[in-house]
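Page 37, continued from 36.
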């Protein structure tokens, strides 16, 4: 399966590559990562890996459609995690400089939470709701 003299491909060669591809799929690798991995670790020619991948895709179309969606989700999760790390570093840097963060304005302000029983159901108040407390505003105030 490595470069050199051309030899005939045996069914067992196809099965070996298929098994290796399936192991890579369990690690959520994309096709390029699989091709590179099999070349580097098993010395399998990229063209042969791509051919076996193509046959697997043709025979298991529904699986690969779902698999490609999972790869997209994986990519989105990785990007989200990178952004979280960046935000954590920025917040740490901001806090270490002693600068207060700027308030955000999104059209409404959240006041400190007052224990207004009119905003909660009976299971949160400890007593039943009283009609006289129903006219008190809740803690959200809109501009």
């Amino acid at each position: 399966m490595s470069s050199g003299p051309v030899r005939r491909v045996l069914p067992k060669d196809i099965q070996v590559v298929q098994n290796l591809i399936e192991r890579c799929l369990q690690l959520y690798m994309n096709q390029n990562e699989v091709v590179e991995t099999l070349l580097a670790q098993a010395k399998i020619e990229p063209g042969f890996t791509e051919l076996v991948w193509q046959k697997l895709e043709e025979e298991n179309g529904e699986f690969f459609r779902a698999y490609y969606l999972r790869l997209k989700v994986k990519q989105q999760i990785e990007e989200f995690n990178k952004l979280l790390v960046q935000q954590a570093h920025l917040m740490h840097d901001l806090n270490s400089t002693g600068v207060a963060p700027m308030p955000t304005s999104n059209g409404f302000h959240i006041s400190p939470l007052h224990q207004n029983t009119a905003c909660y159901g009976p299971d949160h108040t400890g007593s039943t709701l009283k009609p006289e407390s129903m006219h008190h505003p809740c803690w959200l105030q809109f501009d």
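Helices lie at 11-26, 31-42, 46-59, 61-97, 122-125. Flag for discussion at group meeting. Confidence is low (pLDDT under 50) at residues 115-122, 124-143.
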